[in-house]
């Protein structure tokens, strides 16, 4: 199945952080990726995420607008907008 790609807009990239805004149409995806740095996500909208994981499993999570969470480097996944509305979040990678 071919999905539309989420759009990524780099907001900051300096010696300390890289900040990227991701915008997803319904059904759009990031594509498979592995996080090379620790990172923080701030949701701008309610995010109905469908997460594809390396073990072949998928899981759905609803993250309310305004939520902030962090993850360690090494996370590998494909993030898909599993909802019927656009979703957006900001990713801050810690260098």
Concise summary:
With about 100 residues, the chain is an all-beta fold. The chain is about 0% helix and about 55% strand.
Please explain how this structure is put together:
The protein has 95 residues and is mainly β. The protein is 0% helix and 56% strand. It contains no helices and 9 strands. It has strands at 7-13, 17-24, 33-34, 38-43, 47-52, 58-63, 68-71, 76-81, 87-94. The protein has a 5-stranded antiparallel sheet, with no helix packed on it. A 4-stranded antiparallel sheet has the order 3-8-5-6, with no helix packed on it. The radius of gyration is 13 Å and the shape is globular. The model has no long low-confidence stretch (mean pLDDT 97).
Q: Helical proportion? A: under 10%
The gyration radius over C-alpha positions equals 13 Å
Terminal CA distance reads 34 Å
Give the ordered list of helices and strands: EEEEEEEEE
Q: What class would the helix/strand composition place it in? A: mainly beta
Short key terms for the protein model shown above:
95 residues, mainly beta, four-stranded antiparallel sheet
């Amino acid at each position: 199945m071919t999905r539309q790609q989420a759009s990524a807009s780099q907001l900051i990239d300096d010696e300390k952080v890289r900040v990227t805004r991701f915008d997803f149409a319904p059904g759009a995806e990031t594509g498979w990726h592995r996080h090379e740095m620790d990172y923080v996500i701030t949701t701008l909208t309610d995010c109905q995420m469908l997460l594809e994981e390396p073990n072949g499993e998928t899981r759905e999570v609803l993250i309310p607008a305004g939520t902030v969470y962090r993850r360690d480097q090494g996370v590998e996944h494909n993030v898909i907008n599993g909802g019927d509305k656009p979703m957006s979040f900001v990713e801050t990678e810690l260098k």
